[in-house]
Every structure is written in C-alpha cells, then in structure tokens.
Write a structure and sequence with these properties.
37% of the residues are buried. Helix 2 runs antiparallel to helix 10 and helix 7 runs parallel beside helix 10. The chain is mainly α. The protein has ten helices and five strands. Strands 1-2-3 form a three-stranded antiparallel beta sheet. The protein is globular, with a radius of gyration of 18 Å. The chain starts with 7 loop residues before the first helix and ends in a 54-residue tail after the last helix.
C-alpha cells in the first residue's frame, strides 16, 4: 500500500491529537476506534466484507501495510466470519502506540518525553506535518458544513470520529452543537463505516452479548448507541437490558503514552 495515501486509522489518530497538549483525546474509546478503522481500511482494500453484523475475509492477500496485514491474518485465522463487536472489543494492547510510532517514523509527529509529578516518565506527541492535519480536518468540515455527500473515506472517518466521542474535541461548546449533530449524521453515508461505528459504540456501552439486527445505515436517529436483542426462545426468559454507560471523556489513560 503506497504511502501517498494515509490510512483511516492514521487519520483518526491525527484528528484525536491535541496540538496544545500533545495528548490524544478520548484515549480509551480511541483504542476501539483504531481497531474499527482497520476493518474499514481492509474493506476498502477489498480484503474483507460485511456479512450481516459479521466480518468475513474475502481476499487474504497482504496489503503491504504491516499493521493492517497483522489484523487481516488474525481475521483469517478465525476461519469463519466474526462479529464486528467481538473483534473491536477484543484485546488490542499497544495498537495506539503502534500507530503513534508509525506516524513518528513517517515524520508526521515527534515524541516529547517528560515526567508526571516529576517521577513517572511520559511521552507526548506533537504533530509536525500540520498541513496534513489541516487537510484532514478541512475534509471533515466541508462534509459537515456544505451538506454535499462525502467520499466513502471521509464518511467512514466521520462515523468513527463520532463513535469514539471526538465531536466535542473537534467542535467544542454550544457553538459546535450543530456541527456535532451533522458529524453524527454522516454515519449514514458509508455502510461499512456505519457498521463499525455502531460496533464501537456498542462495545463502549457494554452491549456486545446480543447480535445487532442489521438495517440500512440511513435509518433514524443515531444519537445514542443501542443494541437490538434477539427474540426470546422462552416466555420465562429475562428481558434483555442495555447498560447505558457513556463513553469516558478526555483525561489520561495511563502514565506514558497519551
């Protein structure tokens, strides 16, 4: 995969980087978003395809991107389609650091070492290619403010940005409310991006036990994640419950990489 085009995980991470602090916004949910962004990128490369609410490998040939190919190989080893919510909710230790290190090698960010409380070592990342970050943000702004349907990559990026809670980071305050709403609505423009974004939100809300009934991504209100419970096989079965937890906001995930 040529380096003239950035991948969706890379763009999502650049969107999440705070230029003032060098930390990443929404670090916990961002990790889920990066795993989901890999699925979208692999689908756009023709390696995987949605199968209901599951992901199936349709072409196991490597893409040339080591991080994506590692994910593709893990999916191939499953042997059968895997539910997107289970894939995204699985362990992804070090995925954010992997992409940060990759962006550093490409010269798009540079690491700034420091200490927390004068003791614990920390690493912050400052964007060096600010023109790239501005171009990514400009595409998103254009899709939100013009109402023109975005290209699939921008639509998927918008869906993931909404899913991981970057709306208030990108469009803060009351003045950003309408932009956040339109960011959410862009989820309908890319079916794969919509499937993955909903899976990311379901994982955050603890709704991974029941399969989601797949519907058109243009339907209804996407303002809150939800799961569709399967019909009960027994009249005595307990009703399915949602766990309406909200995604964690801001803050540090841990000392070290942010």
């Amino acid at each position: 995969m040529g380096r003239s085009r950035r991948t969706i995980p890379e763009e999502l991470l650049l969107l999440a980087l705070d230029p003032a602090t060098g930390t990443t916004a929404q670090p916990q949910s961002l990790d889920l978003g990066l795993a989901g962004a890999q699925l979208v990128e692999l689908a756009m490369a023709g390696r995987i395809a949605p199968d209901g609410d599951r992901i199936a490998v349709v072409l196991p040939r490597p893409t040339g991107d080591p991080t994506l190919d590692s994910a593709l190989e893990l999916l191939r080893r499953r042997g059968s389609p895997v539910r997107a919510v289970h894939w995204i909710g699985g362990p992804r230790l070090g995925l954010r650091q992997t992409y940060l290190s990759h962006l550093e090698r490409c010269g798009m960010v540079h690491a700034v070492n420091g200490q927390m409380c004068g003791v614990l070592p920390t690493t912050r990342y400052q964007a060096t290619e600010t023109a790239i970050s501005r171009e990514i943000r400009s595409r998103l702004d254009s899709a939100i403010r013009t109402g023109v349907p975005p290209d699939p990559r921008t639509a998927a990026l918008a869906a993931l940005a909404h899913a991981v809670g970057l709306g208030k980071h990108l469009y803060p305050g009351n003045e950003g409310r309408s932009c956040r709403s339109r960011l959410r609505d862009l989820i309908r423009h890319d079916p794969m991006g919509g499937l993955v974004a909903h899976a990311v939100m379901d994982v955050q809300n603890g709704v991974a036990a029941q399969p989601r009934r797949v519907t058109a991504t243009s339907s209804g209100n996407h303002s809150a994640p939800r799961a569709t419970a399967s019909a009960s096989a027994s009249a005595t079965s307990a009703p399915a419950r949602q766990l309406p937890q909200q995604p964690r906001r801001g803050g540090m995930a841990r000392a070290g990489v942010r």
